[in-house]
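LAB NOTEBOOK - FOLDING QUEUE
OPERATOR: T.R.
BATCH SIZE: 2
PURPOSE: Compare the predicted structure-token outputs for two unrelated chains run back to back under identical settings.
PRIORITY: normal
REVIEWER: second-year student, initials M.K.

ITEM 1
FIELD SEQUENCE / FIELD STRUCTURE:
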Amino acid sequence: MTNYAPDTLPSLVDQGLVVIDASAEVAQNVQFSYSDSSYQDVIRIGKNCRIASGTILYSGALINDNVQIGHHTVIGTGAFIGRNSVIGNACVIGDDVHIGIENTIQHHSVIIGRTEMGDHNEIGPFVTIGTEPQHPRIPHAHQPVRIGNNNVIREYCSVHGSAEDLTQIGSDCYIMAYTCINHDVIVDDHVTMANNCNIAGYVHIKHHANFGMGCVVHQYSVIGAGVMLGMGSIVTKDIPPYVLFYAGQVHRLNTVGIHRMGHSDEEIQALRDWYRTNAALPLSEGMANNSDGWWHEDVNLFLEKSHRKICDLSTI
């Protein structure tokens, strides 16, 4: 049962129920709530924090130094907010959610479930992270969500909790508005998704992949490193590394993306020659024909995850 402490903040401090640094500023009508009448879990508020009116802090919440929290936000039981973070108005940070340092979470965003977020992320307004998986057989599994560092997740995006193992976004990703990342999706580092992409469950997206607007990816698909999906692409087969895919097929190498990753024209040509030489073979056999190419590790990692039919590569 939830009990709102009837006492004033000074009284709660005197009782040891709230530990607050003298430099922190807490509005008069901020509420403090405890899970039972024993009031055992202390709420801690660090140096130079600013907590605006209407906010509710639940038992065991830990607000580190220099955190700013807007009006009417809820900080759940046992939640951890890292230093120098900014949380907007009317946000919900759920029970036991862990938010690292220097994150910005804009107004009306909801981060709940078993979510762990790293540092220096920018979360836009009306984002939902950690909600129950959209899975008809195990809708309440609610397994972890992990988000790395230096990501941008724009307004109205959704990242669902895992149904079986883990939903994960790496570091240095840019996820644009209205994109949906479903349960058990793994997004590696440096991935870009334009607006309104829909990623079904159990998809694995390798590093430096780039999605145009409105892409749809079938469940259990694997998108290789450095792949470029043209806008509106519908993906129903696994796509090997470093290719450009649109209108339902592979067209050529993603030369622009490969250049941006620091590879030379000579390295790009070597990959093109390898793909063309081995287009008629399974990729696993083609790997034996050139085991020292710079792309070797990425193709091997792709093959380890791929269990579906692979796109035709004869058009490269």
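ITEM 2
FIELD SEQUENCE / FIELD STRUCTURE:
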Amino acid sequence: MPLALSAEAVFRNRVTIIGHDDGFDCHISSEANGAYWLHAHLVNRIFQEELQVAAESLWPLRVGNTARADVQYGGQHWTIRFKVVSYEKFTARVGRYDAFKIIETHEADGKLAYETTR
């Protein structure tokens, strides 16, 4: 079943899970990004191993779980943090779900670059 990754009117991306392996990886097809693999449902598996390990460490998901990865990318030091902040109802175009809310922050050389809510 397709899932909506964003409820914001300015950005909608319809995705479908098209496969998985025996570990933490799911094969995703996205209208916006084509086909790719997600590791622990948080990071593209082509990224550094440190980021994949951080994403894995959140599982099993529980409110309050946190993880951090420090990586070098594009000549900058990046700190990526994940925090499971709540378990709540989420309404998408395809239905209503109980879902974990995860805040992901990205800092480049000590300065906040962006934050994503999942």
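REVIEWER COMMENT (ITEM 2): The chain has one domain: 3-117.
FOLLOW-UP: none requested
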